């Protein structure tokens, strides 16, 4: 096997452009998420309203994902990515407008709240297309033999952008207010729209252009549910995000549990993702292709333990450490999952498999937000997080004993085969 090159993917110009676009988008999206959470909780002072935000984004993201996968496989990826960014800019501008002084002075709070929910719903529709489009585009930019390295840099860029987006979002709310923060987000989205044209159009690898939507969906779902490794990896991440995540109720912890205010809110959001910076350095120099399955199980288990500690903590510094470490484990898990999907998915099915991934993991972020809001309303925020972390540990333990294929997974031979083929 050839010597590992930690910067292999970064030697490709288009991949660097892709990373810049993705960073700008996620940086803005991350800020927008916590700004919306803060604004809605300020309007309602009700934990359940935070869960409703998750529901508004989950429903369209989940329901449209299968159809989005079919469309992505049959369309040119760069142009589709560009269209998604353009539509996302409309959402960002809409939120900027809704928080303007003239709207706040002339509209009732409920009208503003429902309009925010509407824009979040529209964002959920876009999320259904963003996931499979990005998943497919990466595979067309880099050769297969460096997929693990590309997955590492792409995932780390996502997490790194989340770090700074969350941190800046919390601070900017305190410094310049919600309205001007959303204006900055709109500018970031427009910047990504300009950068994306640095990527050339890509060939369409799925030649079955006359295939019906239903048959296309069946093929994609059959592939995922018949592969124990892919299904196991997706299930682990889905459960961890759905039950173990607590991002949607960080505002509750910041205001009511830790008494930390907007800045503490920013720290909590940033801490969860900042562990990925260490993950980025570690996984580029120390590949995760050997004993991949065991590393995935350990990382998700570690994430669950950290979330239990966070839920039980009443100290800001301990909560930040727990979330930081959970970010480290979550970063490893994400890199491994993306590597498994990139290596195990046929080229002509990337859109559909990416869509299923969005249904399992991407949409579970929003459904997890609903679960967190409801659980916090019923049991209180701390107990809700502790229970979610416990469910994560039970799932990992069950997967360890029941899914031998995932537990014993080693991707070393897959990488060696691609290097031998020169792809």
Per-chain topology:
Blueprint: H1 13-44, H2 47-74, H3 77-98, H4 101-106, H5 109-141, H6 147-195, H7 213-226, H8 228-244, H9 250-257, H10 261-285, H11 292-312, H12 316-344, H13 350-379, H14 381-402, H15 404-407, H16 412-421
Transmembrane segments: 15-36, 48-68, 80-99, 111-140, 160-176, 182-199, 229-253, 265-288, 300-325, 379-401
Main location: membrane
Pfam families: MFS_1
The number of strands is 0
What's the gyration radius in Å?
20 Å
Distance between the termini: 14 Å
Which geometry do the CA atoms define? globular
Major sheet characteristics: none
Number of helices: 16
* Low-confidence blocks of residues: none
Mean pLDDT: 82
Order of helices and strands: HHHHHHHHHHHHHHHH
Beta-strand proportion: under 5%
The oligomerization state is: single chain
Structural class: mainly alpha
Helix content: over 70%
Subcellular location: Cell membrane
Keywords: Cell membrane, Membrane, Transmembrane, Transmembrane helix, Transport
Membrane topology: Multi-pass membrane protein
InterPro entries: MFS, MFS_trans_sf
């Amino acid at each position: 096997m050839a010597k590992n090159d930690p910067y292999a993917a970064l030697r490709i110009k288009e991949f660097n452009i892709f990373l810049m676009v993705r960073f700008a988008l996620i940086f803005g999206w991350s800020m927008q998420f916590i700004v919306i959470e803060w604004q809605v909780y300020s309007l309602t002072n009700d934990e359940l309203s935070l869960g409703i935000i998750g529901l508004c984004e989950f429903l369209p993201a989940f329901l449209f994902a299968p159809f989005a996968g079919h469309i992505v496989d049959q369309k040119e990826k760069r142009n589709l990515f560009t269209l998604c960014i353009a539509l996302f800019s409309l959402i960002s501008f809409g939120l900027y407008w809704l928080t303007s002084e003239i709207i706040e002075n002339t509209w009732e709070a409920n009208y503003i709240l429902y309009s925010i929910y509407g824009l979040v719903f529209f964002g959920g529709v876009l999320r259904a297309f963003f996931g499979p489009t990005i998943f497919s585009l990466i595979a067309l930019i880099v050769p297969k033999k460096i997929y693990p390295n590309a997955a590492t840099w792409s995932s780390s860029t996502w997490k790194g952008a989340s770090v700074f987006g969350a941190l800046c979002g919390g601070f900017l709310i305190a410094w310049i207010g919600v309205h001007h923060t959303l204006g900055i987000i709109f500018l970031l989205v427009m910047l990504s729209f300009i950068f994306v044209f640095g990527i050339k159009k890509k060939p369409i690898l799925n030649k079955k252009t006359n295939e019906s939507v239903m048959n296309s969906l069946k093929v994609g779902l059959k592939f995922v549910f018949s592969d124990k490794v892919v299904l196991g990896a997706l299930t682990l991440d889905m459960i961890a995000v759905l039950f173990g995540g607590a991002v949607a109720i960080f505002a509750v912890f910041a205001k009511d549990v830790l008494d930390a205010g907007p800045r503490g809110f920013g720290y909590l959001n940033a801490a969860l993702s900042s562990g990925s910076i260490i993950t980025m350095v570690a996984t580029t120099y120390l590949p995760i292709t050997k004993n991949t399955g065991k590393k995935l199980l350990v990382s998700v288990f570690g994430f669950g333990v950290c979330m239990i500690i966070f839920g039980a903590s009443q100290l800001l510094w301990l909560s930040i450490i727990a979330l930081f470490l959970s970010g480290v484990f979550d970063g490893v898990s994400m890199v491994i999952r993306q590597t498994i999907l990139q290596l195990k998915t046929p080229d002509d099915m990337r859109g559909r498999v990416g869509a299923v991934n969005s249904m399992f993991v991407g949409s579970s972020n929003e459904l997890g937000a609903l679960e967190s809001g409801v659980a916090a309303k019923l049991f209180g925020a701390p107990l809700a997080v502790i229970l979610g972390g416990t469910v994560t540990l039970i799932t990992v333990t069950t997967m360890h004993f029941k899914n031998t294929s995932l537990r014993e997974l080693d991707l070393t031979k897959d990488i060696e085969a691609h290097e031998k083929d020169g792809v």
